[in-house]
Amino acid sequence: MRMSRRSQATLIYAVLIALAIIILLPVWSMVTTAFTPEGIVFMDGARLWPSKLTFENFRKLGKAFPFGRWYVNSVITSTLFTVGQVISCSMTAFALSYFSFRGRDALLLVVLGTIMLPFQVIMVPLFWLMKTIGLTNSLVALWLPAFFGDITGSFGIFLLRQAFLQIPKEYSEAARLDGANPFKVFTSIYLPMVRPFLSVVVVFSFMTSWNDFIRPIVYITDMDLMTVTGGLSFFQSQWSVSWGPLMAGTLLATLPTLVLYLVAQKQFMQMAVSAGIKG
């Protein structure tokens, strides 16, 4: 028996709602644990709401560790990393789409191949490089590589290159006839026309830096220079885990990326529409 269109829509919405609940349950568990007194986190079992609401876990964040300082470090690092990532990715994507030179396709394959290369593979060489140039135990080590083509920039390069290829060549040819050099074409024509794609690169770059756990604990030894993600590891010792403060810190750590995504959501939709029309 064939289902009606309304029945099919109802079934699809029911499945999507069920999947959304499954995905959001761990997040809601984090929220309830953050507002539950640490001593009774595991006493009440699974609950949809804390049996006793408290903000003590949030107050503990600043008592044991410099959580506020970590937050500032993360904001500074993620912002500079995002700026560097956008600059390096956009310029590389422009070069790989605008200019014709021998070995361009091979170079593109090498860049795309780094997507499959995990950071752990180059972690030790990068550490020795940072140590050699004296950047260990410094926030500079966390954002400077983005200005020179960080390994996490492969996705941004691929995305922007595809966006640049969709721009009609008549625009750049008309600009060249008016005497515009390639840099002028890049900044005045190409970048404004791929603004939604740039927003996606901004969001992903910020999230990559903000959620980075390995680099801070590898490069940073001074506790005052630690970032939020790396600093949360201090709430877990060899014998115990401070679940209340840990979940409170994790909740605060997720807010910037959530706000950034909500702000850039319109750009995400514009990118999807633009890719759908031109693709």
Question: Can you give a write-up of this model?
Answer:
The chain is mostly helical and 279 residues long. The chain folds into two domains: 1-54, no CATH class; 60-278, MetI-like (MetI-like fold), CATH 1.10.3720. The protein is built from 14 helices and no strands. Helix 7 (154-165) packs antiparallel against helix 10 (195-210) and helix 10 (195-210) packs across helix 14 (265-278).
Compact summary:
The protein is mostly helical and 279 residues long. The protein has 14 helices and no strands.
| SSE series | HHHHHHHHHHHHHH
What is the CATH superfamily classification of the largest domain?
A: MetI-like
Low-pLDDT segments, ≥5 res: none
Q: Tell me, what's the shape?
A: globular
What is the residue-averaged pLDDT? Answer: 84
Query: What radius of gyration results from the CA coordinates?
Result: 23 Å
Strand content: under 5%
| Helical content band | 55-70%
The CATH topology of the largest domain is what? Answer: MetI-like fold
Number of strands: 0
CATH class of the largest domain, please?
A: Mainly Alpha
Question: What is the fold's blueprint, element by element?
Answer:
Blueprint: H1 5-34, H2 56-64, H3 67-98, H4 104-113, H5 119-132, H6 140-143, H7 154-165, H8 169-177, H9 182-193, H10 195-210, H11 214-219, H12 228-231, H13 243-263, H14 265-278
Which descriptors apply to this entry?
mainly alpha, 2 domains, 279 residues, globular
